[in-house]
């Protein structure tokens, strides 16, 4: 299927590795010029080289913390008028909620709620004026299916989801959509960290605990960043203009609900 994205421009936050990288690869394969972002210049440069070599699209690299005003300004300077914005950011480390002080809570909300809202504020009116815009927020299955130790991440991402449900309705008639992708267990550094935290808490060896988790997933495996990226690319496509204010769960059937 031709997704109708050739020549579009995208900002993809936290895209040097993991799920953000999967999204960048999938969009570049569809002919989208991409602005990549990450805090560590080395994996960022490696991902940029791979995309240039494989797909021949324009690639810009912004090594910055997207949660800072400076990082956001650098992203928007690299692409002042994006057609696509993929919001993504690392979550707070796994931690018992009793150990969260006030600053840790404020930092977590800034990372996973305030930052994507600030970027959306910066780009949404331009998208509406041009008559095309796709905003995809990578959140987490944990907003529906809470995970102990990820309470701060889950709370901030749930707040973002509720906030944008109303905003999405205000721009849908201008062909601007806002949707969420809710990953379950994917092969990323983040899932390895949270699995280690849970295994330690349960007093179980890491491999044994990881195998137990895999058996709980009806698909019998964890997901790949590549397949996650393909779902993101479809939500960004010209064919997805009638999908907005929705949250797509990608979890191999783990979430136990029909709705």
What would the keywords be for this entry?
single chain, 259 residues, alpha/beta, 7-stranded parallel beta sheet, 7 strands
Give an account of the 3D structure.
The chain starts with 8 loop residues before the first strand and ends in a 9-residue tail after the last strand. Helix 5 links the parallel strand 5 and strand 6. The longest helix is centred in the middle third of the chain and has 29 residues. It contains eight helices and seven strands. The chain is 47% helix and 14% strand. The mean pLDDT is 94. It is α/β, with parallel strands linked by helices.
Topology (SSEs and partners):
Blueprint: E1 9-12, H1 18-29, E2 33-38, H2 41-55, E3 59-63, H3 69-78, E4 84-87, H4 102-130, E5 133-138, H5 151-171, E6 176-183, H6 189-202, H7 206-216, H8 225-235, E7 247-250
Parallel strand pairs: 1-2, 1-4, 2-3, 4-5, 5-6, 6-7
Helix pairs in contact: 1-2, 1-8, 4-5, 6-7
How many helices? The count is 8
- Rg over CA atoms: 18 Å
Query: Which range best describes the helical content: under 10%, 10-25%, 25-40%, 40-55%, 55-70% or over 70%?
Result: 40-55%
Low-confidence stretches: none
Query: Which class do the helix and strand fractions yield?
Result: alpha/beta
> How would you write the strand order of the largest sheet?
3-2-1-4-5-6-7
Q: Say how many strands there are.
A: 7
Strand content: 5-15%
Secondary-structure element series = EHEHEHEHEHEHHHE
The N- to C-terminal Cα distance equals 28 Å
Shape: globular
Describe the largest sheet.
7 strands, parallel
- Return the average pLDDT rounded to an integer: 94
